[in-house]
């Protein structure tokens, strides 16, 4: 295992992914089209996560932990329908989900993933 730290898609405030010691840590991702309902936003976010995991050299089958923030728990079921179709059967990561005040009122969901390489 390398002790080097690799940062992807970095700006002054954050990196979209940090790779260290065989683990990929993704920043929280939100949808680009915030006019969508929570299911649409969840699909967009998970597609972005798939892209960032691939750029990091891994994929969702190696997800270790998923943290999901919703703007309201009323969206829990609709988000879960999309999320449940996304996870690899038999490879479900540890997960938590809660409602928080997100950075903008039109963000319905934000998801952060930690994965093995």
Automatic annotation (TrEMBL):
<dbReference type="Pfam" id="PF01042">
    <property type="entry name" value="Ribonuc_L-PSP"/>
</dbReference>
<dbReference type="InterPro" id="IPR006175">
    <property type="entry name" value="YjgF/YER057c/UK114"/>
</dbReference>
<dbReference type="InterPro" id="IPR035709">
    <property type="entry name" value="YoaB-like"/>
</dbReference>
<dbReference type="InterPro" id="IPR035959">
    <property type="entry name" value="RutC-like_sf"/>
</dbReference>
<protein>
    <recommendedName>
        <fullName>RidA family protein</fullName>
    </recommendedName>
</protein>
């Amino acid at each position: 295992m390398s002790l080097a730290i690799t940062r992807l898609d970095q700006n002054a405030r954050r990196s979209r992914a940090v790779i260290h010691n065989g683990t990929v840590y993704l920043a929280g991702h939100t949808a680009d089209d915030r006019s969508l309902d929570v299911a649409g936003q969840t699909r967009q976010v998970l597609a972005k996560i798939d892209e960032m995991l691939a750029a990091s050299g891994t994929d969702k089958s190696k997800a270790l932990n998923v943290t999901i923030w919703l703007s309201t728990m009323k969206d829990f079921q609709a988000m879960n329908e999309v999320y449940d179709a996304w996870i690899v059967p038999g490879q479900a990561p540890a997960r938590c989900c809660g409602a928080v005040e997100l950075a903008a009122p039109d963000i319905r969901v934000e998801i952060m993933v930690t994965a093995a390489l």
